Amino acid sequence: MEAADNSAQVLIVGAGPVGQLAALLLSYHGIGSMLIDKRLTTLSAPKAHAINARTLEICESIGVSAERLRKLGANANEGGEVRFMGTLTGPEFGCLPYERQDEGAFEATPYPLTNIPQPVFEEELIAKIRRNPRINFRRGIECRALHDAGDRVDAVLVTLESEEEHTHSFDYVIAADGAGSKICQSLGIEMEGPEALANYLMIHFSADLRPLTEGRRGVLYFLFDPGVRGTLIAYDHAKTWVLMHPWNPATERRDDYDDEKCLALIEQSVGHALPETVVENVSPWTMTAQVAKQYRKGRIFLAGDAAHRIPPAGGLGINSGAGDVQNLAWKLAAVLRGEAGTALLDTYEVERQPVARNNNEQSLANAMKIFDLTVALHGTDPEKTAERYAAVSANPGAFPDLAEAVEAQKPHFDSFNLQLGYRYASRAIHEPAPIPEITDVSDYRPSWDAGAHFPHRWISRDGNTAPLQTLLSASRFTLLCGPSAGPFDNDSTIDQLRFGDDFEDSEGWESQTGLPAGGAMLIRPDGHIAARFDAIVTEEIDSVMNEILARDV
Q1: Can you give the three-state secondary structure of 148-204, one letter per residue?
Q2: Residue range 9-24: average pLDDT?
Q3: For the whole model, what pTM was predicted?
Q4: CA quadruple 168, 174, 177, 180: dihedral positive or negative?
């Protein structure tokens, strides 16, 4: 292994999407990192597919084009529906929109959710990483041990091909090494929640199923024929599909699922012979619903699946991890630049752990709610399953409990409030507003409260329409000032943006924010509102900045 780059202040273990975003975010803040992964290549299996609005906004803020990611993903006509079927070509029992991909979504975000295979998303991030001189990206490297020496972390890194071992020192470490994180285990951090809810085989196959899905396009097909088990995921109707097939590792072996058996399962699920289908990959995985008891131990932080193992029902896994590293990166950078006290880093867990718990609880509820459909279609008597299913298939409208069960799935596929509405309450927010109880995961209501993320606004500047996000720094604090706000004599750590002078908005300042025309609000680099002021008083703002950045600790 080459000598470590002395400019790499942070070691990131795990180069999945969360680790990649961590490196890019740190770089955007001027912090060098070493990003390592024991895998030699990006995994070919499509895995996750939903990159939501907030994650796209994070990408755009650091120079990874959200519009390009959306173009690389399936359009809303191809991936905008969830269908409940017997088989892919069999009877259909209901259909729901998949997340907010319609024109109405642009009122809340400039970049609505996209369905993009995880390897494609990763390659876009890696292309950006390889051009970034602040990121030392190495594959085929495993982290064997970490020793927190108080003022640094010594990491034992091994080149797997040669078993060559070297010890390098870093200021901090981010463990983004996924579910079953070895670093989490080595730190003795416990996970809370059920460890094994269900077991599945992800059968990744290539097939052009467009002729069979014409008129019934979708991204998810939940299958309920009594002879079929699983869910079909359409990453690309023309070539890339996955069958999620339940299996029992206690009584079955992975080797039992050869290409012949997998092809038979695929054809049963589709309900049609598929002579040109190719099985690309078969991977077992276990659904869990766990959150780490702590996100930090000394100078080592957990992020992404290392910190929370969220069921895929709701597409919140990768997106929760993106929020983790956005939150952590600016705080690490502020400490490393000497602008903040180390107590600021304690707010990472305080802010992000409740978000993971909410996402975990909703995803678990989503997964359980699917059983309502099974009961509606199969009944409660196992001996009469076939009879019940045949009756419902012949006349779905005659069974009102089926329509009710379909309607009950809506929160599973519309979690706009979870995606955009999460708030923080910690010492890094001055006088945070109470965090409201989440009673409707779909009902996102933009808020200018302290702790909330600033609302998306389409504003006008120099005659051009643009998202407000494009004017706010992702690496510095911004003081967003009302149209009559007085002057602020600040140092170079805060940008200023004045409503009415620097941009125009169709709605007035006071009616939007609830602040007087001479007021202002302080927005953090991650877009969350750190403080609200009725008037600009330099000494007060300086005092609040000292509080937020833990300079007084």
Answers
A1: ECCCCEEEEEEECCCCEEEEEEECEEEECCCCCCHHHHHCCCCEECCCCCEEEEEEE
A2: 98
A3: 0.95
A4: positive
